[in-house]
Fold:
Amino acid sequence: MRAIVIARPGGPEVLELRDVPAPEPSRGEVRVRVRATAVNRADLLQRMGVYPAPPGSPADIPGLEIAGEVDAVDDGATEFGVGDRVFGVVGGGGYAEYLTVHARTLAPMPPGMSFDAAAAVPEAFVTAWDAMVDQARLTAGETVLVHAVGSGVGTAAIQIARAIGARSIGTARTADKLERARALGLDEGILAGDAKFADEVRKRTGGRGIDVVVELVGGAYVAQDVACIATKGRIVVVGMMAGPQCDLDLGALMRKRAEIRGTMLRSRPLEEKILAARALERHLVPLFARGTLKPIVAKVLPLAEAGEAHRLMQRNETFGKIVLEVG
Ligand SMILES: NC(=O)c1ccc[n+]([C@@H]2O[C@H](COP(=O)([O-])OP(=O)(O)OC[C@H]3O[C@@H](n4cnc5c(N)ncnc54)[C@H](OP(=O)(O)O)[C@@H]3O)[C@@H](O)[C@H]2O)c1
Structure:
């Protein structure tokens, strides 16, 4: 099969299209003929050699999400048959024509959705749903602050917030992304080029503060989150593009009885990945089928141009997901 292989740790040029043996499904697994995959920040780190693949995933083929057709089924996998259109989050190996995964980590694709669009869904929407709804318990009538609102996860979070009846405030470093996010249901945008937004959030919540923060940026943003979190508010740290360190006012955190928690999909054990896939099938697929949620695709490139896709992500210019068409 054709696959993008990380030839050695380095820049986008180390991603090489090669012929490699296709994997065979083992107990409980299906093999998927991947039609499209999408790019994630973790792929960039794996390519640089600082974020090794989790156990059980190919060490040198990146790719954390796929959409495709079931191509072979092990006797122990009863959920899908050959030819079923499936999508889901995987531990790695998505930049390839074939991939084997535990059947229950996949979900059926929404009816009528293209493979390119479906590949833009799993990682962004599962991460956003899991962090914001399952972990931070966002409910109707509450207000959520979504940072990097033009990111793959950000564009998913604001759509989910609208779908469940929550109000959303988003930050971005460019006005254009805030404008585009408004078209997806973002209620209010704050330009946060200077990483300072707490005063503005307090103002826009009538001094009450924010109920939930989907923290995709990390670094100094987290101290600002604590400064504008409401009493009993919940901050979920999902990403750290601005760095892993911050200086926190623990007194404010205690006075407000607020929570900060971290989350990561990629490192979870199989049983938790299965739960995430069930949330995709049960809560998100119906919202896509109804048109309430939409995959946001910034760019589609052929698999062979994976290096160019990584460069594009590094430039921070995209709004939504970068999809790689496997064909
Ligand atoms: N924990 C998990 O399981 C999990 C799963 C998926 C993703 N993530 C994380 O979630 C975050 C978003 O991922 P994604 O794939 O959705 O991102 P993405 O589509 O690549 O978008 C990232 C956006 O963030 C903004 N940004 C980049 N560096 C920044 C910085 N230093 N300060 C402020 N803004 C910055 C940029 O937009 P502007 O500058 O124009 O606003 C950029 O376009 C990443 O940190 C990723 O690692 C975590």
In short: The pocket of NAP is lined by residues 40-42, 123-124, 127, 148, 150-153, 172-174, 177, 216-217, 238-239, 241-242, 263-266, 313, 316, 318 (CB under 6 Å).
